[in-house]
Amino acid sequence: MSDSNRKLIEENLADLHRLARKKQQPNRFHARELLTALGELILAEGEGLPEVELVRAAVTPFEHWEKAVAEELSLACTEHIQGVDPRYLDLPNYDFEYLVAARERLEARLTAVDALGLEVSEDLLNRVAEADRVVEPYLREQRGELGAN
User: Fold this and answer.
1) What is the overall mean pLDDT for the chain?
2) Would you call 7 exposed, middle or buried from its count of C-beta atoms within 10 A (0-12, 13-18, 19+)?
3) Would you say residue 149 lies in a domain?
4) How far apart are CA 133 and CA 102, in angstroms?
5) pTM
6) Residue 77 sits in which domain range?
């Protein structure tokens, strides 16, 4: 996975360089791809990776990079927060696999944002943490861990 993430980072950095040459700004889709790949790489290999500095250098010229990041995180966090409404979690066809995969991608983005030294709204992080607390018993039940304590 690390090699595929490095390749994605390389491709996304090339996209950012093209945007810079055209005097265009990145949007949330650019942020999503790059942050997810970078965060997954950091989670797999640890901090202090050279890719962090490469990304930081590539996004520096963009006036609206932080806006693109904020928009992407807001949407991803909101999806998680709203998706763990107990009215949905109790449905027999609730897609817990999607929930877990989406949460892992969100964690990757948050990890990348932290490594890049960008700010995330404390309120948003608190709401994600609360959503995690709400869904945890359901996930334990899905894994067959209910009552195992």
Assistant:
1) 94
2) exposed
3) no
4) 16
5) 0.91
6) 2-142
